[in-house]
């Protein structure tokens, strides 16, 4: 009996030792299998970190690029300002010592009404107006221009559209419009102010047709002025 118990205890001890060894082997294998994936996993970095946009060098380069763009914008602005100044000097004669004062005067009779008028000084428009009533004809005179011009030769040009006001046997004229174009050249000397009156007039005479009657006359007077008058 005692021998049988010893045999059973020996068998039990053997099974216990075998189970422990198998359990340790399984844990080692499980630990080995779990560590391998952990070792191969790579954490996904943010896009800013991958591109380097969060680095001090990138921010410094970005700031430099912005400063260069702003510098180019400033150069363009200065170039435009310079061109505008040159345009004013050339067209308006800002640095010249001459001056021009131009006037329009309507001396037409009742047979004509001014519908539109446009004035040009050296090719640049200085006055333009179109009316559907007689308000323009009602203004007998008004100033067209008053300002400095370069010393030298200049040209005034005028283009008008007149409407006929027929009466009696000339009632057919109500259906007509007349285009009147004229130009005038004058010289403005340095240190002088030139006043030019543009008079829209009508030639008289029963034998003249309505087409021949409208015409433009110019009166020029130049006077020397001091620095205060420029």
Write a brief structural summary.
This protein is an alpha+beta fold. The protein contains 4 helices and 8 strands.
Question: How is the topology of this model organized?
Answer:
Blueprint: H1 2-40, H2 47-51, H3 56-92, E1 98-106, E2 112-121, E3 124-130, H4 135-138, E4 141-149, E5 152-164, E6 177-188, E7 192-202, E8 214-224
Parallel strand pairs: 1-7
Antiparallel strand pairs: 1-4, 2-3, 2-5, 5-6, 7-8
The helix/strand class is alpha+beta
Q: Can you count the beta strands?
A: 8
Count of structural domains? 2
Widest β-sheet, arrangement of strands: 4-1-7-8
Distance between the termini: 145 Å
Q: Report the C-alpha radius of gyration, rounded.
A: 50 Å
Folded structure, characterized:
- The chain has 230 residues and is of the alpha+beta class.
- The chain has two domains: 49-92; 98-229.
- The protein has helices at residues 2-40, 47-51, 56-92, 135-138, and strands at residues 98-106, 112-121, 124-130, 141-149, 152-164, 177-188, 192-202, 214-224.
- The chain has a four-stranded mixed beta sheet, with no helix packed on it. A four-stranded antiparallel beta sheet has the order 3-2-5-6, with no helix packed on it.
- The chain is elongated.
- The model is unreliable at 34-40 (pLDDT under 50).
